[in-house]
């Protein structure tokens, strides 16, 4: 990878990881259309570490309070403060771990296909529009119950299909369950922490079992740029979401899908 490719893909990862437009789709499509060499698993792990640092840094106070309340809930054997939210983030990750683990054994390369990405990009645009339009938007993330948490966790499985968007599908389910846009986005972003951590850990194990030498400078540059762009993205997305809703991202997805189909068909 040359420096230009590292910079573009790292910033793209940071900007798209938490927007409902699918970071995996963009990381697959950009090299495909620009005829770049595949960035490889090692680079994917590096930029995901960057986005992980961004979301942990942004929600550091919430994470501290959730962790503290979860610890006290274990000691007192009852729900304390935001302990349900903390346990919910972990529980909602389990369905993706199970299904993702099975698919990793079977092989998922058949999904990394521009036609699959184009189809899921367009189809889930309508799903996101329906959830944003029909959602009651009367609850925040602190009101989530175990049923809500399980449904959002099951929705996250769908994001294993490139082009869906993990943040988009979990926000859409949150909106369908009556969460405010900000509440749905916040739970989605918190849910990204264990999801990215576990996915990155599994990929890292595969890398360590490979004898290919690692070039560190592009990885460090990619991680830093992904972290900075992701932090900025989270900040402004949360500030603007209640006002603009998901419609601008839905329109972008539809336009992207149309462009992809025009190239592929």
Q: Strand count, sense and closure of the main sheet?
A: none
Structural class: mainly alpha
- Low-pLDDT parts are none
Oligomer: single chain
Overall residue-averaged pLDDT value: 90
Distance between the termini: 30 Å
Helical percentage: over 70%
Kindly give the count of domains. 1
What does this structure look like?
- The chain has 265 residues and is an all-alpha fold.
- It has one domain (3-264).
- Helix content is 77%, strand content 0%.
- It has twelve helices and no strands.
- Helix 3 (40-58) runs antiparallel to helix 10, helix 4 (60-76) crosses helix 5 (83-91) and helix 9 (166-176) runs antiparallel to helix 10.
Describe the structure in brief.
With 265 residues, the chain is mainly alpha-helical. It has helices at residues 3-16, 23-34, 40-58, 60-76, 83-91, 94-106, 114-134, 146-158, 166-176, 181-208, 216-244, 247-264.
What tags apply to this protein structure?
single chain, 265 residues, globular
Record the SSE blueprint.
Elements: H1 3-16, H2 23-34, H3 40-58, H4 60-76, H5 83-91, H6 94-106, H7 114-134, H8 146-158, H9 166-176, H10 181-208, H11 216-244, H12 247-264
């Amino acid at each position: 990878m040359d420096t230009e490719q590292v910079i573009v893909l790292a910033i793209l990862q940071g900007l798209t990881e938490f927007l409902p437009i699918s970071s995996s789709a963009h990381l697959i499509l950009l090299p495909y259309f620009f005829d770049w060499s595949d960035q490889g698993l090692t680079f994917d792990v590096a930029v995901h570490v960057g986005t992980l640092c961004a979301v942990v840094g942004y929600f550091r106070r919430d994470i501290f309070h959730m962790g503290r309340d979860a610890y006290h809930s274990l000691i007192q054997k009852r729900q304390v403060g935001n302990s349900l939210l903390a346990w919910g983030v972990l529980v909602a990750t389990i369905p993706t771990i199970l299904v993702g683990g099975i698919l990793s054994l079977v092989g998922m390369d058949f999904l990394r296909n521009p036609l699959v990405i184009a189809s899921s990009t367009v189809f889930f645009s309508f799903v996101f529009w329906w959830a944003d339009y029909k959602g009651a938007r009367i609850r925040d993330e602190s009101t989530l119950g175990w049923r809500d948490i399980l449904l959002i966790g099951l929705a996250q499985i769908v994001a294993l299909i490139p082009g869906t968007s993990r943040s988009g599908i979990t926000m859409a389910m949150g909106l369908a369950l009556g969460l405010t846009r900000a509440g749905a986005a916040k739970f989605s972003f918190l849910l990204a922490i264990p999801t990215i951590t576990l996915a990155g850990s599994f990929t890292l194990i595969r890398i360590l079992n490979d004898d290919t030498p690692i070039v560190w400078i592009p990885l460090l540059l990619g991680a830093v740029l992904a972290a900075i762009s992701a932090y900025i993205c989270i900040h402004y997305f949360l500030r603007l979401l209640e006002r603009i809703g998901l419609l601008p991202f839905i329109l972008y997805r539809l336009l992207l899908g149309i462009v992809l189909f025009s190239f592929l068909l």
